């Protein structure tokens, strides 16, 4: 990399977890994006891009018949689809010590290229790994397996209280991706983890698929 022998540097994950001799062996799978920086908290000089490659989760096959939620006994399924999107914000803000702010905006201009539904919250934010995991169809937040940079955020399935308050709307089985593509043609997730200075963006597009 052309680094002078007298210059110090660090190698980190996209979540700014420093790679050391102790945890290097935990990088057991290919495709992990790493940063070569002068310090762990160094500002990135420009935007970085990471392409996500994944095989469909096996639940795509074994649970492909779970359409009952959208069937909804003849009712309008649009509110249920919006509820799935709000579920992400409920989960993200569940550990807030202050005000939980969740906004739903209907954008009819061209600021996003086309009319859009925007769900905005002041929650904990997601790392790039968490965004990657969110992109995997039918990879439930209750069945995800941990790895070197786990997507677990300390989420514990709550005690029985109204689902509108406990971020368990997706109990009904419809994933956020299904909700997105029921409403529109693409999804853009923009997130900044509370403990990081980096902003992560994920785009899923039916056209790209």
TrEMBL record:
Q: Output the superkingdom of the source species.
A: Eukaryota
Q: Which Gene3D superfamilies match?
A: Histidine kinase-like ATPase, C-terminal domain
GO terms under biological process: double-strand break repair
The record's annotation in InterPro entries points to: HATPase_C_sf, SMCHD1
Q: Which residues cross the membrane?
A: none
Q: Which PANTHER family match?
A: STRUCTURAL MAINTENANCE OF CHROMOSOMES FLEXIBLE HINGE DOMAIN-CONTAINING PROTEIN 1
Record's protein name: SMHD1 protein
Native source species = Peucedramus taeniatus (Olive warbler)
């Amino acid at each position: 990399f052309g680094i002078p022998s007298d210059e110090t540097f660090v190698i980190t994950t996209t979540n700014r977890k420093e790679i050391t001799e102790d945890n290097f062996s935990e990088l057991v799978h290919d495709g992990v994006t790493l940063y070569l920086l002068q310090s762990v908290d160094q500002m990135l000089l420009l935007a970085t891009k990471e392409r996500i490659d994944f095989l469909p989760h096996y639940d795509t096959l074994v649970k492909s018949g779970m359409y009952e939620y959208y069937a909804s006994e003849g009712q309008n399924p649009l509110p249920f689809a919006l509820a799935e999107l709000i579920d992400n914000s409920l989960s993200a803000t569940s550990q807030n010590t202050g005000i939980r702010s969740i906004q739903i905006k209907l954008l009819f201009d061209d600021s996003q290229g086309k009319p859009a539904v925007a769900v905005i919250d002041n929650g904990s934010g997601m790392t790039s790994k968490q965004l990657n995991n969110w992109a995997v169809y039918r990879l439930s937040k209750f069945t995800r397996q941990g790895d070197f940079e786990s997507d677990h955020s300390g989420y514990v399935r709550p005690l029985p209280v109204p689902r509108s308050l406990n971020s368990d709307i997706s109990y009904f089985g419809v994933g956020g991706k299904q909700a997105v593509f029921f409403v529109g043609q693409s999804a853009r997730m923009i997130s900044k983890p509370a403990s990081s200075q980096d902003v992560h963006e994920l785009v899923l597009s039916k056209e790209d698929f």
